[in-house]
Amino acid sequence: MVYQTVFTIATLALWPLRAASATVLPVAGPKRFDVAITTASLTDSDRLDPFTGDGRARSIMVSSFNPVASCLQTHLEAYMPPATAAFLDDKFSAYGLPNGSFRSLQIETCNTTQRGPCSSDNFPLVLFSGASETSRLIYTSMLQSIAATGYLVVSIDHPYDADVVEFLDGTTVTGKDISSDEDIELALATRVGDITFVRQQMTNATIADNLFPGHQLGNRLPKTAVIGHSLGGATAASAMLQDVSINAGLNLDGSMFGKVLEAGLDRPFMLMGHENKTQETDPSWKAIWLQIKEWKAEFEVKGAAHYSFSDLPLITAVLGLQEQLPAEVAEFLGTIEGHHMTELIVEYVSMFLDLVLKNGSENGLIESNDNFPEVVVGA
Ligand SMILES: *[C@@H]1O[C@H](CO)[C@@H](O)[C@H](O)[C@H]1NC(C)=O
Ligand SMILES: *[C@@H]1O[C@H](CO)[C@@H](O)[C@H](O)[C@H]1NC(C)=O
Ligand SMILES: *[C@@H]1O[C@H](CO)[C@@H](O)[C@H](O)[C@H]1NC(C)=O
Ligand SMILES: *[C@@H]1O[C@H](CO)[C@@H](O)[C@H](O)[C@H]1NC(C)=O
Ligand SMILES: *[C@@H]1O[C@H](CO)[C@@H](O)[C@H](O)[C@H]1NC(C)=O
């Protein structure tokens, strides 16, 4: 493993040194595999993009996180492609993050894998959908760490709903203002369409092999869970309603809405919320809870805030900025130290996935956990 310090050019003198030097985001939790990451654009020729209004087919960007049993070589790569990093640097500088922070971040991935069947493990599939006005890329570390526990993960950008989506040729699609109830319903329906499309694309051997070389996914239907943050959490439940081949769902801190509140779910579903987001405070959580007919659990994370369930706390911790953020930023990142917060998510998400997709037990999940005293088991 090679860790290097690279200095980026331009305007460095204006900012603290640590934001300017390259910083590697660590893999958190019980890592068992190195992970290879591939990005791809997928076009659904059966669906028009409802946001462009010009008869164009819906195109999305995805990242696959592929656990590699025998990684021959790892390397450092940019956390984000350049236009996205520049966009987010601009956006977050308004919140006190030094300009250049996102451009300075790197991750370590496996880039040289053995071809052919590299593993006898039948890894299940996990599809991820993030918050609105948010890039899928600000969940990369979290998802890399989850994949490292033995899951094939695909994160999905939903263009026009995400604040910025960068395609492979460098073109970007910036977000539209999605705020009316009508817009949010359209965004939810479009996200559900994106997820069921990606699920179905995994049965195409060409695409599955590009995203997960060596796993021969196209020849088997892997067990599948959908995980979402915020609007993505509501999407996870609605996608399960739409697509019965999805085995389980997990909502990180999203309020629930849509038909699923009445229709309910007949497969396992878990809710994890920030401090004081529970069935007692969010009526939509109470409503869905009563309608989950299978295994269910609810957790409250004391000290967490809405964006605790992303890489942002880890990024600010790694940059050494977590203690220095303005109060209004701390309010949406919570007070839990960034490495610990990522470990917490990876631990609870992987225990849930092990239970619903592998042969895990629920004991560790629903018992109190000395490593994570801030997690309160609800209901
Ligand atoms: C993998 O990364 C190493 C180190 O950066 C590099 O030397 C090598 O060429 C890369 N291999 C591929 C196939 O990209
Ligand atoms: C951040 O830095 C970039 C590149 O140096 C510059 O173009 C941009 O205007 C800066 N943004 C802010 C908000 O200062
Ligand atoms: C699988 O995907 C490839 C690449 O997009 C496409 O050319 C091919 O037609 C697809 N195959 C099927 C059976 O849909
Ligand atoms: C959560 O609720 C308790 C009790 O009402 C309150 O003391 C606490 O400040 C709340 N926490 C947050 C983060 O709002
Ligand atoms: C689940 O199966 C794996 C592989 O077959 C085995 O190593 C593991 O011990 C099992 N776990 C439980 C909790 O039974």
From TrEMBL:
GO molecular function: 1-alkyl-2-acetylglycerophosphocholine esterase activity
Entry annotated with the keyword Signal: yes
The protein's name in its UniProt record: 1-alkyl-2-acetylglycerophosphocholine esterase
Gene3D superfamilies, sorted: alpha/beta hydrolase
Taxonomic source organism: Ophiobolus disseminans
Pfam annotation, one family: PAF-AH_p_II
Main enzyme class: hydrolase
Stretch forming the signal peptide: 1-22
EC number: 3.1.1.47
Superkingdom of origin organism: Eukaryota
UniProt KW Glycoprotein keyword: no
Gene Ontology biological-process annotations: lipid catabolic process
Keyword list, A-Z: Hydrolase, Lipid degradation, Lipid metabolism, Signal
